[in-house]
Amino acid sequence: MFVNFLISSGTTEGRQKFVPFTRHSAQTTLQIFRLASAYRSRVYPTKEGGRILEFIYSSKQFKTKGGLTVGTATTHYYASQEFKIKQEKTKSFTCSPQEVISSGDHKQSTYCHLLLGLYFSDQIEFITSTFAYSVVQAFSAFEELWKELCFDIKEGSLSRRITLPKVRKAVLDIILSNPSLGLKMEEICEELEGKNWLGLIPRIWPNAKYVYSIMTGSMQPYLKKLRHYAGDLPLVSAEYGSTESWIGVNLDPCLSPEKVTFAVIPTFSYFEFIPLYRHKQNYCNSAPDDFIEDEPVPLSQVKVGQEYEIILTTFTGLYRNRLGDVVEVAGFHNGTPKLNFICRRKLILTVNIDKNTEKDLQIVVERGSELLSKSKAELVDFTSHADVKNQPGHYIIYWEIKGEADEKILRECCREMDASFVDHGYVVSRRTNSIGPLELRIVEKGTFKKILDYFIGNGAALSQFKTPRCTSNQVILRILNVCTLSRFHSTAYDH
Question: In three state form, how does the secondary structure of the chain look?
Answer without folding.
Answer: CCEEEEECCCCCCCCCCEEEEEHHHHHHHHHHHHHHHHHHHHHCCCCCCEEEEECCCCCCCEECCCCCEEECHHHHHHCCHHHHHHHHHHCEEECCCHHHHCCCCHHHHHHHHHHHHHHCHHHEEEEEEEEHHHHHHHHHHHHHHHHHHHHHHHHCCCCCCCCCHHHHHHHHCCCCCCHHHHHHHHHHHHHHHHCCCCCHHHHHCCCCCCEEEECCHHHHHHHHHHHHHHCCCCEEECCEECCCCEEEECCCCCCCHHHCCEEECCCCEEEEEEEEEECCCCCCCCCCCCEEECCCEEHHHCCCCCEEEEEEEECCCCCCEEEEEEEEEEEEECCEEEEEEEEECCCCECCCCCCECHHHHHHHHHHHHHHHHHHCCEEEEEEEEEECCCCCCEEEEEEEEECCCCHHHHHHHHHHHHHHCCCHHHHHHHHCCCCCCCEEEEECCCHHHHHHHHHHHCCCCHHHCCCCCCCCCHHHHHHHHHCEEEEEECCCCCC
